[in-house]
């Protein structure tokens, strides 16, 4: 039964208290109508616990806002939720993605992630194009979805809020990949479930890469917040040559800084007996946290992004199918995922709001039982990029 406002209520009880579930929970379709966001379809979810989040239908069904009882969890950047019609994929030397980079969760892929790369295209059997110029984090995040359905579904005394859509990334003499996405949450719950399925609908052998850029902001992110993760090894740091120059380690963020240069880490994560990898940012002052749970077999790699620049204050949790070495490294190491016609890859992710000290403590205990993360702020990167097996 849904737990609403401290009461465990049946469907009968809930319906007796309102003529419409939307009084306190539900999912509805809206449009953004001003500025660079004008024309974007948006789904607003409210679970009835104080958790509210929005899904940008016209931007790969990524999650934009995320807040709990009026406290922001997700991050908003200066770019806003820019309409995809304004996006220039190859703009600014491949860094145009930065002008559409905002929100709680952004999908990177479907055939490329990380920094720019000229990918050989002999697999597409089209001589006039020898390479595909891949820009930062790929194309999919600014492709509108074909919304196939959304709404509320009752199963006995359980009510599920859901939305489904298909995002197609395709070209003549190029890739034809589809992302089938389903987002759901139970009424009375604080856990968002994301189910993704990537399918090669084309008849060319096609590379596949996927990464989620999960961005957390103030007030969840603040001085004194703590990053919790089952880290078995700190593999790499973008700033290793000046590891301590900014006086910011991996565990706790500072207040917003002037002239801060982003820091990125790759951590080798452990998993529990169910293949699950939980990582969290918690704010003990607020009694609030956000735990991201992925599967090790699906996302064997994970990055931590620190952007503590004033005016852009954010931290990212980034599960990835590939190492930070990118597409070039994946090809050289034989770790690229190649999809033939009809091949597919599935991904399940959960975003859980941690409400109160008890929920935070339970999450921390679960993570520590998998692996004790380094107690020092500046663990030396090992450079040990473990082989990713099971790929054609």
From TrEMBL:
InterPro entries, A to Z: DUF4432, GH-type_carb-bd
Pfam name, any one: DUF4432
Gene3D superfamilies linked to this entry: 2.70.98.10
GO molecular function annotation: carbohydrate binding
Lineage: superkingdom: Bacteria
Protein name: DUF4432 domain-containing protein
Protein's organism: Halomonas huangheensis
